[in-house]
User: What shape does this take?
Amino acid sequence: MALLAEHGDDAKLLAGGQSLVPLLALRLASPSVLIDLGSVPGLDYIRGDDGHLAIGAMTRERTVERSDLVKSSVPLLSEAMPLIGHLAIRNRGTLGGSTAHADPSAEIPAVAVALDAQVTATSSKRGERTIPASQFFQGFFTTALEPDEALTQVRFPVAGPGTGVAFEEATRRHGDFAMVAAAAAVRIDDGRIGDARIVTIGVSDVPVRCREAEQALIGVEPLASAFEEPSSLAASACDPPSDLHGTSAYRKHLIRVLVRRALEKSTRRPKEQT
Amino acid sequence: MSTEVAQRYVGASVARSEDPRILTGGGKYVDDVKLPGMLHAAFLRSPFPHAKIVSIDASAAREAEGVVLVYTGEDLEAMIRPGPYGISLMMNQDKPAFSCLATDKVRLVGDPVALVVAESRYLAEDAIELIDVDYEDLAPIATYEQALDPTNPPIFEDLGSNVLAESDLHTHGDVEGAFARADHVLSVRINQHRHQNVPMETRGFLASYDREADHLLVWSANQGVHLALHILAGRLGLSPEKIRVRTADVGGSFGLKIGATREEVAVAAASMALGRPVKYIEDRYENLMASGQAREEYLDVEAAYSDDGDILGMKVHMVVDAGAYPGMAAALPTMVEGMLPSAYRIGALEFRSTVLVTNKATYVAYRGPWAVETFVRERVVDLVARELGMEPFEIRMRNVVTRGEEPTSMITGRSLDGVTVRESLERMAETVDIPAFRRRQEAARAEGRYLGLGIASYIEAAPGPRAGQSPLGLEQMRMELDGDGKLLVYTGQMPHGQSHETTLAQIAADEFGVRFEDVRVVVGDSDLVPPGFTGGSRSATMAGGAALTTARALRAKVLELGAHLLEANVSDLRIEDGAISVAGVPSSAMGLAELVAAVQEPGRLPEEVDTELKVANSYDGGAGGWSGGTHCAIVEVDVETGLVTFERYVVTEDCGKLINPAVVDGQVRGGVAQGVGAVLLERAAYDERGNFLAATFMDYLMPTTMDVPNIEISHLETIPLDPDVNFRGIGEGGMIVAPATIVNAIEDALAPLGVRIHEQHLPPARILELAGVVEPE
Ligand SMILES: Cc1cc2nc3c(=O)[nH]c(=O)nc-3n(C[C@H](O)[C@H](O)[C@H](O)COP(=O)(O)OP(=O)(O)OC[C@H]3O[C@@H](n4cnc5c(N)ncnc54)[C@H](O)[C@@H]3O)c2cc1C
Assistant: This one.
């Protein structure tokens, strides 16, 4: 932390290197100091903490993916992990690195926003502060972290009973960043939807929480026919970019399809489990 | 007694000699060659597609840490003689003239503007950033329309416009008659998109000039050392004897690494000026942006056909986007014209072409460079079938030639002797139950699922028919029996994935009579190997034939010597397992090492006997011939996401006598993988302003093992045309026919939605546009 305070903007933290090293190779980033978090102790853990699961920044994506604790407590995160790149990348990439990197198509930030996770930022001068995920992601590769701050932990709320989850994505190839993805966590109370969280990525510079769609689901019986309207709401609420991998119109269409598929899948899940 | 050689190796899937080295990381590539005092080169490249260079200030770079030399285009002009670079030497492309590095103008994003040589690549790249170039924008020429617009500035002043070549109208057969007889005429523009060779190893080049000896040693990732040597000699003003070009292992090329390119000549010039070794390894960014791209062309087609589905004739105008610094594009239309009818009874063809220069990377050879003939023809066949409501397979069977019946050649003149496309279609119908698929397709459609079956056929000049008496070009080879009885094979072929170290050794071992392990194939050294080059599906026949005839000639020589040494008649001798013996008398056996020693022993043989255990030979291609076949894809299209999955991919093909079935299957699979990439993933995209959009692997998507289907391959029996050599090349076919096969399958899947496809690249967004699910942008 002292190193970070000393070098500020000239320094970059190196976690798994799966995003930073390509940027260095392409000469898109040329920091004069690299601070390797690999040798910082105490940042690699997954533990329960007061209705939350706290995960240390240097926990490898693969460790999160394989954790039974994550699977039982934060199933949406479990669901998202295998969709990140390829195995070799997840072996090195870290939960903190992905969160701090804030790629608008990354899965972990989508889960953090969907579940209202809390990000812990630490600096040598001011100590720790907690930033809600909804405020943490500010734009393309831009977060609320100050130049002298490191991300040290992310806390995810534990899923309540009756919650079903799904993470649906469309990629050009296996392992690619999603063109568009939709994450859903839906709680069913007495046969009706009690809580719904929907986030889409690949459509804006940050993960997008689809509040209107969520509202439209509350109190509704989880039938396939009930998902058309919320899916359309999610699609019409955004104005995705066009690039080589898909036009704006295509992405908008995909959001509708993937939100609907995510809702169908997540509402089947709690039933499947009982 | 029979003197026939036993074929122990030819026809067997002998494990590749290359594999232990390459698969265990022991392969040695240009980048692994390290010479004492070696320096490293990097290029400053243009960020603009088309701009005037007003000034270049390289003073800061010259002063930068570790920098030994900086050259601008002007600096190099004084050192380099004008003339062709890269593939253009082979293609006789002598216009327009261009400089080694950009001087007056830059003509594409990635055009090399300056060269920095430094103690390390890192320092060279750091210095690149210190070079200050003042550019003045010119209107970019990035589309066919922009290139055809005479009010736009010419990219090359000496061309006067952006039209590089324009052909006359060529007519084959009775075109007007065919169109007059036709019940229908289909008019379509069929587009092929720009995509490119992406070898795993990028271009790599190391030049080391020895001032004292006035000698230039070059290591180059290349498809043939001599072409590179001649370009270097020509551009550098050195005599060819003063240059030695070597290759290390070559990690793929697909047509890219031919001759010496502009960057390579610049690096050699720097080494000559410094008297030190200079290495340049292209990075992936440069490779995607500036090494070369291929395939961008369209064909305006009118196809005349009957109610019964007979394709009577075609009128075609082909337009090619050659990119800047033209290499081979102007030679392309002639190849496409000649091949277009393929194995179909298309009785009339009218053809003309226009080749344009644009502000994009040079159009280079890519695995089956003329493949658009297959894409367009096989698309037209399916479009006609759809118009008539007929099964595309039936249309193919109606139109495909039958062996032994007229016509025996294409209307464009090329003989179809030995072509078995009809047989490959029949085999396909035995392998894939098309009527059963149609029933399944029907049932799936009722559930809202879209399955499609696509078939396409092709032939590949491998090396092509023998036209009259004219030789197909000679393939040279040398063989030598060395002191320990091993057979050395010197070939001009330069394998970069084709397995010649294995396949040529199989042929030579069988013909000569040694064990496969005792044959060493020597490649890639201009001091050692005869002139040659690997490309164009020629090597199975040409180098295979050369290996067969050269091994025979050397064997005859050894038998002659053996006759003296063993005091027997030549006709009683045999060579087996590396020993010569009198047939039926095992105790007479003399190992070949022993024979070599005996031959060299003074006084052992009469004076007049030729004791040189070497033979140089050449092979003219014999009867020549085609390979070819039929591919079939069964796909499912998700009409909600536009994503395509493969259910089945089947290949029935004929490449004559198989030298090594595993190698053949590998070539087929690799080609199909590239075809999958072309249709679903790969596009060297530029925007309308000439900016390059696909300079990393996040944008230029290569198929991975997860995207390439399992490929079922069956081989047809050989129709021998030649008494000895019936091996035919298979290197390009997979890539030639797979795009048509896959697009045909996708169109078939979407047929209920009324979809007709006139393009090759079908990313998911485009599929949904075609299906009418999302609006085109
Ligand atoms: C081929 C490929 C495919 C991929 N596919 C996907 C995918 O589908 N989905 C996906 O989400 N990701 C994908 N990734 C990215 C991968 O998940 C990255 O590992 C991850 O985004 C960054 O994690 P890292 O630990 O490697 O961070 P690094 O690369 O080490 O760092 C990334 C950035 O975050 C900063 N940083 C790292 N740790 C901290 C910290 N604790 N505090 C503050 N700043 C920090 C660094 O300074 C740097 O700017 C892919 C990567 C590759 C190479």
Notes: Chain B touches chain A at residues 125, 129, 285, 640-643, 680-681, 683, 685, 693-694, 696, 698-699, 701, 703-704, 706-707, 763-765, 768-769, 773-777 (CB under 8 Å).
